[in-house]
Design goal:
- The chain contains seven helices and six strands.
- With 321 residues, it is mainly alpha-helical.
- Helix 5 runs antiparallel to helix 7.
- The longest helix is centred in the C-terminal third of the chain and has 106 residues.
- Helix content is 63%, strand content 5%.
- The strands form three sheets. Strands 1-2 form a two-stranded antiparallel sheet. A two-stranded antiparallel sheet has the order 3-4.
């Protein structure tokens, strides 16, 4: 019985071709050809990776976020991780679930934002650090890239070493065969001819003059230079990721400071407005009381003047005697 018949085969969810389970992608269950034709992209909102399922639809929004956009509208920035994925309230679904499960958020050791959640499990930490979800994903990608590069370099070294050893063994066996043939065919009276026949073999056995040694040294130099370039690129990527997270944290702090300043100014304006209104009302009351008292004084002066006029007319009239 063949090994292909003994191992179970599973169908691809896109082209329905049958493959071993290890060759299918986790989650979508796609084969290598379908994975190559449908690339893996990041969601615009939740920043999680997903695989596009059709060539006509090149949207960079996952199905979950697309359904949430239709149900709740465009999201806002999460108050913890600052990802634009808060469809309900001011927290994204990931941070809300983590807060409900693991407690309040703590400071991330990489980006210094208050967006990490302590699971109280050292195995969940990345490289012994308590990181948020974004920093964990970026660090895992960087470690996977370095691991893949080192494995490819090790495979190349193992292959070159194997080829070199097989080439040496072949040349050694050829040398032994040629030496045996030379010993059987040569006579004792021809030592100089024997030496002249053996000298070319010794020239062929010189490892310094062979072409494969030059090719191996060139390959080693190129591998070393490529390793240096890869390390430099990885350091640049890590520094850029760190700078991006620092700028995001600075932007978040600036926005919170501006919001707090605006709220304080609004409160001060409201208090000033209420004070001015109370002053205006008090002044209007004083004006009303002053106008009433002025009216009363006018009435009193008029009555006094009329009484004085009446008394003066009575004294000025002549007597009848």
């Amino acid at each position: 019985m063949s090994t292909s018949a003994s191992t179970p085969l599973f169908a691809c969810s896109r082209c329905f071709s049958r493959h071993p389970f290890e060759e299918l992608s986790p989650g979508e269950q796609l084969c290598k050809e379908c994975r190559g034709s449908f690339p893996v992209v990041k969601c615009t909102y939740c920043r999680s990776e997903f695989q596009q399922t059709s060539k006509s639809n090149t949207s960079s929004i996952c199905k979950k976020c697309e359904a949430n956009v239709k149900a709740y509208g465009k999201p806002t920035a999460c108050e913890y991780c600052n990802i634009i994925a808060a469809f309900i309230g001011n927290k994204c679904q990931r941070c809300a679930n983590s807060e409900r499960k693991y407690g309040p958020a703590v400071t991330c050791e990489q980006c210094k934002q208050r967006c990490a959640f302590d699971r109280h499990d050292d195995s969940k930490k990345v490289d012994g650090k308590l990181l948020c979800w974004l920093c964990t994903q970026s660090l895992k990608r960087a470690l996977a890239r370095t691991k893949q590069h080192l494995s490819s370099v090790d495979k190349h070294k193992h292959r070159s070493h194997k080829l070199k050893s097989s080439h040496k063994e072949k040349r050694k066996s050829d040398m032994i065969k040629s030496m045996n043939a030379g010993d059987s065919s040569l006579n004792e009276s021809q030592p100089m001819e024997k030496k002249s026949k053996l000298n070319p073999l010794q020239g062929e056995l010189d490892p310094n003059s062979s072409d494969h040694v030059v090719a191996m040294t060139q390959l080693k130099e190129t591998i070393a230079s490529l390793q240096k370039k890869v390390q430099q690129k990885e350091m640049e990527l890590l520094s850029k990721d760190k700078l991006i997270t620092e700028l995001k944290a600075q932007h978040h702090n600036n926005t919170t400071d501006l919001r707090n300043e605006m709220k304080n100014k609004e409160r001060m304006n409201e208090t000033k407005f209420t004070l001015m209104n109370t002053k205006i009302q008090n002044l209007l009351k004083e004006v009303a009381t002053l106008s009433k008292s002025a009216k009363k004084n006018n009435k009193n002066t008029k009555s006094v003047l009329s009484n004085a006029e009446n008394s003066g007319s009575g004294t000025d009239s002549p007597s009848t005697n």
